[in-house]
Design a protein that fits this description.
Helix 1 packs antiparallel against helix 2 and helix 3 packs antiparallel against helix 4. The chain has four helices and 17 strands.
């Protein structure tokens, strides 16, 4: 779950570097959220609804003795679901609905958990059934942008190096990054310092140090960098109705480099 840059609600100020023990707990949290995302992906076929996918994630989280991090999250009103399920022009924070998912849809699955006091956050985007080349290309570019950012998440680098790597890859492909929405530190709180923007200048920003854990999450749209919030006050969509895509991993900075925690 991303945050709008500068928005104070729910954001814990101050960088908290994690110990090896704390990262070990977050590794377990990451495994659980990856299991939940994986189970949703396995069931993501034409005819299923966002509500049904949300129930699948809720069951996996409960079976692994974790808590759903999104439910109750502060916003215009407490977030009522376990996941956000964004479809086509929906970018982030989309409430799961009873609308049946169709072949050709681009679906973004975002989920977070709290386990033994620590959070993990993950998102993937998937094309359902046979998809257009436009959907496939957007998916590939956004996933590649996430990997480009993770490769710059190294001791001695700066936040701007991560941001610039993401921005350069996305813009070289002719797409747009959602203005204002950023990745974030994560640990005992869902959203911690530092903010990890998806646009920036290499060599600038906060120094990256061993023990930092962050959610890196490019949010990409086909036709614009501008977004709008729907009347439900949570769902964020591209302003021009163009396709939107979102990938996210929780990543720990170790002496040897980045480790993706949100994996099985």
């Amino acid at each position: 779950m991303t945050r709008l840059a500068g928005e104070p609600t729910g954001w814990h100020r101050g960088v908290e570097l994690k110990s090896e023990r704390e990262i070990a707990v977050m590794r377990q949290a990451g495994r659980i959220v990856a299991l939940a995302i994986g189970e949703m992906q396995a069931k993501l076929k034409p005819g299923i609804t966002g509500r049904q996918l949300d129930a699948i994630a809720e069951k996996v989280i409960a079976q692994n003795k974790a808590e759903a991090a999104f439910r109750g999250y502060a916003g215009p009103y407490p977030y009522p679901f376990v996941t956000t399920i964004s479809i086509n022009e929906q970018l982030v924070h989309s409430l799961p609905t009873k609308r049946e998912i169709r072949a050709g849809d681009l679906v973004s699955l975002d989920c977070g958990v709290r386990y033994q006091g620590f959070y993990a956050d993950m998102a993937v985007s998937v094309g359902v059934g046979r998809c257009s080349s436009d959907v496939e290309h957007l998916l590939a570019v956004t996933a590649q942008a996430l990997q480009a950012g993770i490769k710059q998440f190294l001791p001695g680098q700066r936040v701007g190096d991560v941001s610039a790597a993401i921005q350069n890859h996305v813009e070289a492909s002719g797409y747009y990054l959602a203005e204002g929405y950023t990745g974030h530190g994560i640990g005992r709180h869902m959203h911690e310092d530092p903010s990890i923007p998806n646009v920036g200048q290499a060599g600038t920003g906060r120094l990256l140090r061993v023990g930092l854990v962050a959610a890196i999450e490019p949010m990409v749209m086909v036709g614009t960098s501008q977004t709008m919030t729907q009347p439900d006050e949570w769902t964020v969509v591209s302003a021009d109705g163009s396709l939107a895509c979102h990938f996210e991993h929780t990543v720990a900075l170790l002496p040897s480099g980045p480790e993706v925690l949100t994996k099985v």
